[in-house]
Prior knowledge:
It contains 7 helices and 7 strands, in the order αββαβααβαβαββα.
Amino acid sequence: MGCKLALVRLVFEDDSPRFPVGIPPAGGGWTGLIHRSEVPAFAGLLWGWMVFCNFVVMVRVCYAGLSLILLYMAKILIINGPNLNLLGLREPGIYGSQSMDVALDALRREFDSHEIDYFQSNHEGDLIDRLHQAGADPDTAGVALNAGAYTHTSLALHDAIAAIKTPVVEVHISNVHSREEVRHRSMIAPACRGVIAGFGLDSYRLAVEALLRLTR
Ligand code: DQA
């Protein structure tokens, strides 16, 4: 209070033309003194500085908010291997009568705050290339891979999964363990984060769910 009064007197009394700025040194007396005519310019500078600081704070808050949104939004890639382009038509007693397009629509609706990409190929090399591509894409948070029959035969697919850091979940529509013995063995499982099998097309949804949990 006393300090405030002293400042007012210093600025507006004619015999005290100088206005103290800053912190008085320990020994007493003021260091920075400005003339009363300079007060508006000084106030303008102060105002500008405050506006700039507010702007910096706002930019930081927006950046943090955007980072949180990006963290929450994930891109998940579903890869289907050989013969899975025929879902809905192929052995409906085992794989059901729903097409992958219908399943994908439902998935995209359910996970609408995320991006669900899809790739299908009947060729081993194409599947490997797509896995490499996913591994090089920092936005792809995970891969749900139904490698079809390559699951049981492909060391090359195993190596492609092992070569990338992106988590891969092995997916099967049918319960491969309740089928012929040749389907009990998975070449790719040791390189995958987990395996989901036997829940029909819902296996894909469960895999996406599991991958999203890994990203949180
Ligand atoms: C499959 C199981 C594989 O054994 C088979 O070769 C497939 C589909 C499944 O989704 O159940 O093509 O991966």
